[in-house]
Amino acid sequence: MTKETMKAVGLFKYLPVDHPESLIDAEVEKPVPTGKDLLVKVKAISVNPVDYKVRSPKDRVESELKVLGWDVAGVVEQVGPDSTLFKPGDEVFYAGSIVRPGGNSEFHLIDERIVGTKPSSVDFAQAAALPLTSITAWEGLFDRLGVSMDPSRNAGKKVLIVGASGGVGSIAVQLAKYAGLTVIGTASRPESAEWVKGLGADYVINHFEPFVPQLKELGIDQADYIFCLHSTEKHWQNMAEAIAPQGKICSIVETDEALNLTLLMNKSATFVWEFMFTRSMFQTPDMIEQHKLLNEVARLVDQGVIRTTAAQKLAPINAENLRKAHAMLETGRTVGKVVLEGF
Fold it and tell me: Is the dihedral of CA 94, 177, 219, 222 positive or negative?
């Protein structure tokens, strides 16, 4: 019996994005779900910095096509024998696992414990913009920084979101407002500052200038929470100065330089990382929390509390358009998310 195939976009060599072989169109074997996996027919995907970081030039050649892509919206085609949360025909959205093939393919295998029911009020392209950034923002604010989801407990508390106009920042601003925090976002260009204000931020400051003087001008002494989504080491001194005593700083951006944690000592301040792939990568016992939080995000989208941050749409899903999307993200100047739709 001949095995079914499907379209996929991936790589064998790690090359600069302007190289035609940095991402290529291919036909690969269509997978079959086992265990708790779902086989999802992919309708739309979106692109994140993790995509170009994984694809970036390195001295390695893959023996099998490496498929990237960690934001998918689609329809359940088949379920594994141990699946209990979904059935064929269900519309879903999710970010996937960094240690498994990505979702830039016609069909995709995914553990149901990290999959949510797609918001019904938006299309597949808009839904595909949400999972990775929503999980990161949610875990960063509520799991890592320990922000309460009860607005009455956050009265007078302030969060500083560094790099608020990007994918994660765009969701974090909305979630922080929903939780009742005073939100100060950072942005460096008029159009990104405008975007951040439009999402509900109370104030916007420039992250290329010292934080404390700008906060003082707004009548704010310090931030109870800082969520860093941009150049951890570049903003480290500024964050250490701006954090309140016993405050918490969370970052999602890896650093090549050692951070001087002693700067936080006198304030008994906490520093914590957020990496949204941790739960799926280590198969943590609470892995199903991502299923729950995606369902909650979908509910908030359907209620109009959170709006999708899809900003630019490309079609169809192919190597040429994915190279284009990677190049856009590599400029570091995209506002909102780049999504691709249809094979």
Answer: negative
Question: Is the CB of residue 223 less than 8 Å from the CB of residue 247?
Answer: yes
pLDDT tens digit sequence for 271-329: 999 999 999 999 999 999 999 999 999 999 999 999 998 889 999 999 999 999 999 99
* Nearest of 100, 118, 99, 97 to residue 41 by alpha carbon: 118
Q: Do 61 and 159 belong together in one domain?
A: no
Q: Is there a contact between 163 and 186 (Cβ–Cβ < 8 Å)?
A: yes
Q: Give the number of domains in the chain.
A: 2
Same domain flag for 143 and 113: no
pLDDT digits (tens, 9 = 90+) for 29-40: 999 999 999 999
Strands of the sheet with 24-29, listed across from one edge:
24-29, 5-14, 58-67
Domain boundary (219, 245, 273) is at 273
pLDDT of residue 336: 78
Find out whether 62 and 14 touch, Cβ atoms under 8 Å: no
Q: Are residues 192 and 147 in the same domain?
A: yes
**What's the CATH code of the domain at 35?**
3.90.180.10
| Alpha carbon distance 231, 221 (integer Å) | 23
| Domain finish residue from 273, 307, 330 | 273
Report d(CA 120, CA 302) in Å as an integer: 7
pLDDT 10s digits, 248-286: 999 999 998 999 999 999 999 999 999 999 999 999 999
For residues 242 and 289, membership in a common domain is answered with: no
Q: By C-alpha distance, which of 55, 82, 199 is closest to 137? A: 199
Residue range(s) defining the domain that contains residue 196: 134-273
Verify that 25 and 38 share a domain, yes or no. yes
Across residues 86-90, what is the average pLDDT? 98
